[in-house]
Amino acid sequence: MKSKVKRLVAALGTAVVAASGLIAVAPTASAANLTEFHEQDVDWAACDGFAELQCATITVPLNYRKPNAERLQVAISKRPASDPAKRRGVLLLNPGGPGGPGLDLPLYFATNRIAETYDLIGFDPRGVGRSSPLLCEAADQVGTLTTRPTDAEFANWTATARAAEEACARAAGGIRPYVNTPNTARDMDVIRAVLDEKKINYLGFSYGTYLGAVYGTLFPTRLDRNVLDSSVHPEWIWREQFKAQSRAIRDNVDTFFAWVAERDSRYGFGTTAAEVLATSEELSARLAVEPWEGYLDQSTWDVVVGANARYREIWDLLAEDMALIRRDVLGQEVAPERVADAVAATRALYELGIAQTVPGVFQTVTCEADWPTDLNTYYDDMRRYRVQYPYGFGVLRAAPTECTFRTFKTTDRVTDLKRTRYPVGLVVQADSDPQTHYDGGPAMATRLDDALVSVSDEGTHGLYARNECVTALVDRYLVDGVLPGSRVECPGAPRPDVPADGAFAATADAERPAPASDLEARVRDFVDRKKFTGPGY
């Protein structure tokens, strides 16, 4: 359990945030002081590991207020427009995180229309990947961290967060104050200058939506067309965004349980969503006492169900797995090979629900806003979250983090986001996104006066190049300059084709479909298809 939870504490690969007053960013170095960075020579060469890309390394100030002092390196990549006659500039890409590497991101969109029209530009933000890295020492987890901790166990969460911050300070203290969103946006403007472009176009995912909005606020005359896919909430920087993940996960679970209830004859969990929840909770309590097959304990159950309820396409696989586990736990006859299949499938589902972060940057950028220092604020939230949001490890989003014990002084204030002097853009948001809550999309679109594309009945995070409707609308905007309208809705991925109870009333028993075998193989097939990963995962 300890190793699994350490992965969970390192998980949550995307926007994680606290309510904070929005304050204007302090002034930075003048353009004249940055001339040497803007006019530096760039040596493009074949990109090691990414044969289709050209790569280069540029130099940026560590501290933009003192550009003549220490510097950092930022790795950038380029995939030239495949149709030079249609070229309309560069399109900078960011996958999110914070801390997601983006050097290879142009490869993910090589077959999309944007690759014909734009030089696709990827980059590893400061502190990430092949750029000057920000690394933290590893810290041991203190005690056992569970999805439903007792009050006495809260101290373990606090000690673990404090130890992680102290370990990061030992390894990265000198760089951390300057690894933040405004400085990354300033790095983007250096990238623009060394590419000899008057303006950039931008496509950002998850945390990258906030980065794009900050860039537009700081450099409004240098941003052209822009798309913010799976947006953070502009007023939830950063802890409140984090907590909203738990609420979205629970909404997905409740919707999934309602679907399962309509198919009680197949899965046997109850005929109403409330009954399915009660059955799940009963099974969860059993697992807290005796893990199934020595593997599946209560916390792992909460993660498997909560993390995968977002994926409508595999609701049938998740429900089938849950049904097999319950039957075996209750002592009902289940063939040994089916038990082994369910164990393997459960492990695959657990792995699908965990997204790793890049050491150092995630737990630095999310500390750029002030977090509460009163531990009772966290403990009060944890008492509610362990009851209301146990699925998907919801209590983790309410617990203390490194930011609670921040050891460095921030060098920039939280940016007051606004759109002036650059074109209307697009915000794209799925209504059941558990990483950036749906409310962030309308809020960001309203703040920037952008158009909003909502995706209904969808838990995916990062829609462009995954959802056909979204992809068509974004391509039409970025390539042709055509806005889809102020508010547009796209359909999400279809739910499994599993008939609800009563659908077979006129069908002979022999004609009714039987549950397929090889549950693990079907889950692995979905996992492999999701390994496109790219932005938002």
Key features of this structure:
537 residues; alpha/beta; 18 helices; 10 strands; globular; disordered N terminus
Q: Could you give a short description of this structure?
A:
The chain has helices spanning 2-9, 35-38, 105-108, 114-117, 154-172, 181-194, 207-218, 239-261, 264-267, 273-289, 298-308, 315-329, 336-352, 362-365, 375-388, 440-448, 468-480, 519-530; strands spanning 45-47, 50-61, 71-79, 90-94, 119-124, 200-205, 223-229, 426-430, 451-456, 487-491. It is an alpha/beta fold and 537 residues long.
What does this protein look like?
There is one protein chain. It contains 18 helices and 10 strands. The protein has 537 residues and is an alpha/beta fold. The protein has a 10-stranded mixed β-sheet with strand order 1-2-3-5-4-6-7-8-9-10, with helices on both faces. Helix 8 crosses helix 10, helix 10 packs antiparallel against helix 11 (298-308) and helix 11 packs across helix 13 (336-352). It is globular and about 75 Å long. The two termini are 24 Å apart. Residues 1-27 and 505-514 have low confidence and may be disordered.
